[in-house]
Amino acid sequence: MDKIKMSEDIDHQRRRFFGTAAIGIAVAQLGLIGSAKAQSGETKPADLPEIKPGTNTSFASLKQIDAGVLNVGYAEAGPADGPVVILLHGWPYDIHSYVDVAPLLAGAGYRVIVPYLRGYGTTRFLSSETVRNGQQSVVAVDIIALMDALKIEKATIAGYDWGARTANVIAALWPERCKAMVSVSGYLIGSPAANEMPLPPKAELQWWYQYYFATERGRAGYEKYRHDFAKLIWQIASPKWGFDDAMFDRSAASFDNPDHVSIVVHNYRWRLSLAEGEPKYDDLEKRLAEFPVITVPTITLEGDANGAPHPDPASYRKKFSGKYAHRTITGGIGHNLPQEAPQIFAEAIVEADNY
């Protein structure tokens, strides 16, 4: 792949994105410290009932539908005729990140859709011949196909990690389908060309798992130890989150999907130009490699104890041209922000939807 010339602004943004301190690999689980609070001088948060994180453990309704190349498993809550909110999970997590967010939004009148991404839970490929592809554009195409299958013209889309990136991609490439967005860690669109640039050693250390997945030993190790691997990532990414084994196990069951390892490994190898994407998505990736500005109303969130690689909010402010607010959530909130601070996440969605 030819290198794509980037502006100094994008280059500087990416350096700030990865320029945080390195994380120690062995991190002990700690108890939850304090309660989550949003630091912002912006609009008053939406008035939703208070909920304690971990109140709910399951969804009332789980469904399946053919959409694009997948048979998608998803949770649904709220009135069928309500304004739609789509909640997208990350790696290595699943729909249980939203087990407390969904009922809050459903109670406020929203139709809430929480899909398992490709390679997770009950989502399956319709054909054994389909490439097990994890590149950034294809996950967004999956969600557009799901919206089409469910006859959803437009939705407020929210997510973190892979889910935030997917929301970013939809907002950038299909703004007519995205009414508003809530994105943890802001602007996460990337490109293999941009990832060719080496980072300072401490920043590279944060991506140790990406380099592990680049090897066949890493693929085999993730296949064999995927639950232990995921728990380690949870501990590193949210060092102050007091999740218990039962909570982890509910999500870890999703990693038993037969395509999980292939999708995860392809995603991280594709980012490093070690695996090819599918040619039919080349045009979408070319557009994303220009780091398009997002025009839809957006609220970005960040936890004050996010142990995963994440950008400084100042580095992506200019990537949002519509109505915008950023909030840093205090109280020891880590990477899995919707599960650790469901009240604040749900309030952000209602607020962004009303921009």
Q: Would you kindly provide a brief summary of this structure?
A:
With 355 residues, this protein is of the alpha/beta class. It has one domain (8-353): Alpha/Beta hydrolase fold, catalytic domain (Rossmann fold).
Protein described:
There is one protein chain. The chain is α/β, with parallel strands linked by helices. The protein has helices at residues 8-18, 101-107, 136-149, 162-173, 201-206, 208-213, 216-237, 245-252, 260-271, 282-288, 313-316, 337-340, 342-353; strands spanning 37-39, 62-67, 70-77, 84-88, 111-115, 124-125, 155-159, 178-184, 298-303, 324-330. Strands 1, 2, 3, 4, 5, 6, 7, 8, 9 and 10 form a ten-stranded mixed sheet that branches. Helix 2 (101-107) packs across helix 13 (342-353). The model is unreliable at 1-34 (pLDDT under 50).
Protein topology:
Blueprint: H1 8-18, E1 37-39, E2 62-67, E3 70-77, E4 84-88, H2 101-107, E5 111-115, E6 124-125, H3 136-149, E7 155-159, H4 162-173, E8 178-184, H5 201-206, H6 208-213, H7 216-237, H8 245-252, H9 260-271, H10 282-288, E9 298-303, H11 313-316, E10 324-330, H12 337-340, H13 342-353
